Structure to design on (349 residues):
């Protein structure tokens, strides 16, 4: 019995030690993963290689079986020679195989709060850190606009490229309205699809007020502020004509800042003629000087692949489970709002 009890005690100690080690290792691994997750990940895709692969696959598909066999044999030999040459260059310290300048491609599909600017800033910082002379940037932009401060920051991020004299082209396949156009106008060149929606240089705000409903139900609302215009219009309280006037003044001031910004980016544009809050299709926008060229982002990329190495940059933020859930809910709300806007036919603020 003593032997069995001693063995059981020994076994319990071993299990306890093993469990303790497992817990410590798990904690260390989780902490290291959290550190990595806080940073996110920058992903690069060589669009030039993807295009070449697609072109070769299509060409091979049009051959008969005998030709395909010979073609695959030739391709295998070619790839082997290229790998050998790349290895030799790497040994000599040469890492730029093509010698071509790079066209850095980014994507911005903007939500109402322009939360995508957090990824955009990382992508632009990455480009600025490695860009060589003659490198350029192409931004595929899609946004109906949103909050002023969010899109103001997004436009400021694009201005970093302009400040470093890196040519920027913005391609609009669907929509760049209001805050979206605020971003687009920073570019040296704007390409728009024929029926893309461009413009909406204006500012709008609306606030519901349920004060009369509350009064009918004998509900009082008290609002205390320090500062005459700390709160101009409210949802619950009774709004005053003075508050409404101040609110309109703030909107007009924001609109003026918007117009001045567009004019500074595109001096030749008649801003007063287009800053009415209206939007136009791409063809009309070209006539008014809002864009420089009619076309799609696809054609712009294909044209540049002759002379540039085309690389797509995409910064992926690592989010916790709660952030993923709330982010998914926000994306759903944005999609519903965009669908409502498309049916109504008017760009968002």
């Amino acid at each position: 019995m003593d032997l069995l009890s001693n063995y059981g005690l020994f076994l319990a100690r071993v299990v306890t030690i093993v469990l303790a080690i497992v817990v410590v290792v798990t904690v260390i691994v989780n902490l290291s993963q959290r550190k990595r997750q806080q940073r996110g990940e920058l992903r690069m895709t060589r669009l030039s290689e993807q295009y070449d692969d697609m072109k070769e696959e299509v060409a091979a598909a049009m051959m008969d079986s005998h030709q395909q066999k010979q073609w695959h044999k030739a391709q295998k030999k070619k790839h082997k020679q290229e790998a050998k040459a790349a290895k030799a260059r790497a040994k000599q310290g040469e890492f730029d195989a093509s010698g071509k300048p790079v066209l850095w491609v980014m994507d911005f599909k903007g939500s109402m709060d322009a939360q995508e600017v957090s990824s955009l800033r990382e992508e632009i910082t990455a480009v600025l850190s490695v860009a060589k002379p003659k490198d350029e940037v192409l931004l595929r932009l899609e946004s109906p606009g949103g909050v002023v401060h969010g899109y103001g920051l997004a436009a400021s991020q694009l201005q970093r490229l302009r400040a470093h004299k890196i040519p920027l082209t913005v391609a609009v396949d669907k929509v760049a309205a209001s805050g979206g156009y605020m971003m687009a106008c920073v570019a040296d060149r704007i390409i728009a699809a024929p029926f893309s929606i461009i413009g909406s240089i204006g500012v709008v705000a609306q606030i519901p007020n349920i004060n009369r409903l509350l009064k009918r139900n004998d509900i009082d609302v008290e609002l205390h502020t320090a500062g005459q215009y700390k709160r101009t219009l409210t949802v619950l309280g009774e709004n005053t004509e003075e508050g409404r006037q101040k609110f309109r003044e703030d909107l007009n001031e924001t609109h003026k800042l918007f117009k001045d910004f567009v004019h500074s980016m595109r001096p030749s544009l008649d801003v007063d003629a287009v800053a009415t809050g209206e939007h136009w299709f791409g063809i009309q926008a070209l006539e008014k000087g809002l864009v420089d060229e009619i076309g799609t982002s696809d054609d712009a990329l294909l044209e540049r692949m002759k002379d540039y190495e085309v690389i797509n940059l995409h910064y992926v933020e690592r989010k916790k489970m709660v952030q993923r859930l709330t982010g998914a809910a926000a994306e759903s709300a944005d999609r519903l709002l965009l669908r409502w806007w498309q049916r109504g036919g008017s760009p968002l603020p």
User: Anything to note?
Assistant: The two ends are 82 Å apart (CA to CA). The beta strands are 41-46, 102-109, 136-143, 168-177, 189-192, 197-199, 279-281, 293-294, 309-316.
